[in-house]
From TrEMBL:
Residues 21-371 form the AMP-dependent synthetase/ligase domain. It is found in: Cytoplasm, Cytosol. Keywords: ATP-binding, Fatty acid metabolism, Ligase, Lipid metabolism, Nucleotide-binding. Residues 421-495 form the AMP-binding enzyme C-terminal domain. This is 4-coumarate--CoA ligase. SUPFAM superfamilies: Acetyl-CoA synthetase-like. Belongs to the ATP-dependent AMP-binding enzyme family. It comes from Salix suchowensis. It comes from the Eukaryota. The keyword Phosphoprotein does not apply.
Length: 520
């Protein structure tokens, strides 16, 4: 159209860097980061990040270089989310629970030029202490903003529920938009107080590292996530918001009386990572937490959907409300489209809450691609949508509900069994703390549900009791025929590592050759 001019006056590449720069002005004297007795203001955090960017550039970090970080939720980890992009580099946050061999593989794959590590147990040549590094930085450093908003800002490796993590590339544009969406779906008004329970290394803290800065909030950091620390930090800092996987919520509702403390006010909680059992949501609300259910993947910058609440649902029973909250919902404002499709025909499934299909995403908050894996990127985007690999149904109101990972669905005698549905029933048993369902080989049925269960402290239940409980609440073909009592292996973000449990169930052999129940 005639008369338009695209120039620096009306077009600037989107980047979360601008969130920090604005907060350093608007919220300059407000606390930005609190960690024990350590506190910084937004003015100080901005200055520290500029110094960090300057120091990195002085060390030879060039635009596009990867800087790796291996650290828990401490102030330095937060600062890296701004300082590294301000140097024009790409931040690669690594899972602190990876063993040395996996860290070595990921460092090599990412080609990281520099690594920032928390608490090395031994001295190494060439190591520079973080605060000493900041002292070398200059405040007059010219921040290296992206030339193209599609330029990479971070590299996130998938969280390891499968055995082969992939490097997911985030852009400045996607991070900017998903940060806004995260603030909106968490109902973060100006200056929230956010407690860090989600690891910052997981999807850059579900993009809330940047979202909290956009709102001039306070980041309450904690190295370890325990129920004692959660309740103490909420009381001490008057926390208004937090996030956590369902396992964190489960920890909270099962905290001892000596650990629990009265909440200073309503605490908004975003949960995701795995479908939360309605029983857990119900108990959280009883304690005074307001839970919002979100769903997404590393490839969607973390949260991609939200179970937006409709006022008429307030008239339902608490149990009815919890069941609705357990849905994955609809796309957030930063995402263009969300659908349940037949993966072969790419046609939308009927909105009948029964027909299963694959959850698919399309929009600006979907990854750029997988690092050095063009074939996997093309497969993920086949058909013009991002294929999640998750199976779900669509309700008549348009809200989606996850049923399983495509690789976790159990096919027994030709019937599809959702492990999520069986797990939800087990979670409602008063003695069960955690539960996971996988398929166990069966000579007759092909496979049957195998339950791995951890009981609450001081509670007793045997395999026969749990099987009968499931039989009373589920169709018989969905009832577990095997129950194994043990600790559940998890990723650092609280997801159960089902591939580990699948191998264990496989090693147990066909259930038709042995007993119907097992206790280990």
């Amino acid at each position: 159209m005639e008369g338009m001019v695209k120039c620096s006056a009306n077009y600037v590449p989107l980047t979360p860097i601008s969130f920090l720069e604005r907060s350093a002005i608007v919220y300059r004297d407000r606390v930005s980061v609190a960690y024990g007795d350590i506190k910084y203001t937004w003015k100080e955090t901005h200055e520290r990040c500029v110094r960090l960017a300057s120091a990195l550039a002085h060390l030879g970090i060039s635009p596009g270089d990867v800087v790796a970080a291996l650290a828990p939720n401490i102030p330095a980890m937060y600062e890296l989310h701004f300082g590294v992009p301000m140097a024009g580099a790409v931040l690669c946050t690594l899972n602190v629970r990876h063993d040395s061999s996996m860290v070595s593989v990921l460092l090599k794959h990412s080609e990281a030029k520099l690594s920032v590590v928390s608490r090395l147990p031994f001295p190494l040549p060439g190591i520079l202490e973080y605060e000493s590094l900041l002292e070398k930085g200059k405040l007059d450093f010219e921040v290296r903003r992206p030339k193209d908003e599609w330029d990479p800002i971070s590299l996130n490796y998938t969280s390891g529920t499968t055995s082969s993590p992939k490097g997911v590339i985030y852009s400045h544009r996607g991070a900017y938009l998903n940060s806004f969406a995260a603030a909106l779906l968490n109902d973060m008004s100006s200056m929230p107080v956010y407690l860090w329970c989600v690891p910052m290394f997981h999807c850059n803290g579900w993009c809330l590292t940047w979202a909290v800065a956009a709102q001039g909030g306070t980041n309450v950091c904690q190295r370890n996530v325990t129920t004692k620390d959660i309740f103490e930090n909420i009381a001490r800092h008057k926390v208004t918001h937090m996030s956590g996987a369902p396992t964190v919520l489960n920890m909270i509702i099962n905290a001892s009386a000596s650990e629990k403390r009265p909440l200073p006010g309503k605490v908004a909680v975003m949960t995701g990572g795995a479908p939360p059992p309605s029983h857990v949501l119900f108990k959280m609300e009883e304690l005074g937490f307001h839970v919002t259910h979100s769903y997404g993947l590393t490839e969607t910058y973390g949260p991609g959907t939200v179970c937006s609440w409709n006022p008429e649902w307030a008239f339902l029973t608490p149990e009815g409300q919890a069941k609705i909250k357990a849905r994955q919902g609809v796309q957030h404002l930063g995402l263009e489209e969300l659908d349940i499709k037949d993966p072969a025909t790419m046609k939308s499934v009927p909105a009948d809450a029964k027909t299963m299909g694959e959850v698919m995403f399309r929009g600006n908050t979907v990854m750029n691609g997988y690092l050095k894996n063009l074939e996997a990127t093309k497969d993920a985007f086949n058909g013009g949508w991002f294929r999640s690999g998750d199976l779900g149904v669509k309700h008549p109101d348009g809200y989606i509900e996850l049923k399983d990972r495509s690789k976790d669905i159990i096919i027994s005698g030709g019937e599809n069994i959702s492990s999520i549905e069986v797990e939800s029933v087990l979670f409602s048993h008063p003695a069960v703390l955690e539960a996971a369902i996988v398929g166990r080989p069966d000579d007759f049925w092909g496979e049957t549900p195998c339950a791995f269960v951890k009981l609450k402290d001081g509670c007793n239940a045997n395999a026969e009791e749990l099987i009968k409980f499931c039989r009373d609440h589920l169709p018989h073909y969905m009832t577990p025929r095997t129950v194994v009592f043990q600790e559940l292996p998890k990723t650092s973000t609280g997801k159960v590592q089902k591939y580990v449990l699948k191998e264990k169930a496989k090693a147990m052999g066909s259930i038709s050759k042995g007993n119907a129940t097992s206790k280990l």
